[in-house]
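dude i think i finally got it to work??
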Amino acid sequence: MKKIIFFLIILLYSCSGRPNFMKFDVVFYAPLGTNYNEIGSNLSEIKEIYSNQSLILNDYIDVPKSIQLHKNKIYIADYYNKRVSIFPINVSDTNVIIISNKGEGYEFDTPLSVKLNKYGEIYVLATISNQTINSNQSQLAYIYKFTPNGKYIYSIGENGLNSSPMNIPERIDIDLFNNLYVYAVRYENDFKDYDIKRFSISGELTFEFDTKYISKTNVVNNEVYLNFISSVFNLKNNERLIITSQNYLIMKDGKNIETPTVFYNSIDIYSILRNAIIKNLFKSKKYLEDVLAVTYDDVAVLYSYDERAKGVKFRFVDLSSSTEKETVYYAPQISSLYQQAGYFVDKNGEIYSIIVKDQKYFVLIKWRKVKSRS
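look at this
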């Protein structure tokens, strides 16, 4: 009888309409620490802060989040150890390469992000250093390019190659054609704008656009909304942007609203050439969805927390075709503090997570895509 009841419970759960959650495989792991074969963290600071507690949540432990996988190697912008570490994924290979924050021809302080082009050349986004390379020039560049073996090539930013001063970038990215995209943020009068720069593989500035030229208001029937941009991503074709924004109602029926309380979240495709929004991907006054990544093939990866499914929902929307085919995947929530934290997607559309195990190990897992039933 107990077996029958158990079978019915399983059957009811499977027929309840809940989605299939992806399972995962461990791709890489390494101990936390400061040695050359270890990855930095804030564990020592956390232990000091919570010294009176017997339990320290893994969610409190911060580890480097910017990684890249390329030809059986993992590249990590280790901001705690102030270096870029290159580990072999094959456990039988023990050859670890370190790009320190100071070397021949360059110097920076803390690496924030690392990206690779298809040739394995390495781009490092880093905070600037107050030190000087020589008595005549301060190293003020923000982006540093290295060969696959870690030899310095050039820098981009103030005093860098073919570029003028820019605000410190929020992030960098590489497209299918090995162009480097730089997203420098500027705040002015409560508005967040992006100065988007595109550099060729040789470091030449080939394109630039400032989101300040996008209208800050939009009109829907008798309502006027004020737009606040929160993130921007590039598509490889026709100079289009994917823009995430919050839109607050400031006027209705010709009357100003002094304290806006009505707003909606939206994700739109904006055409730079046409200076207009040409497609809406998401719009809601109740739910929030964000852009996690855009792949080499112009597949936008949108993600949100699904309250009904009690998990994280990933929407892969193919923007390279007219049909805009969409595929949905679900993953369990892996952070006890933040519902959507802990996931990233590479340029090939693979979903990964970084977790800390036993307060000792940095672990990279890859989610096995299973199409959802819902």
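The chain is about 5% helix and 50% strand.
im so relieved honestly
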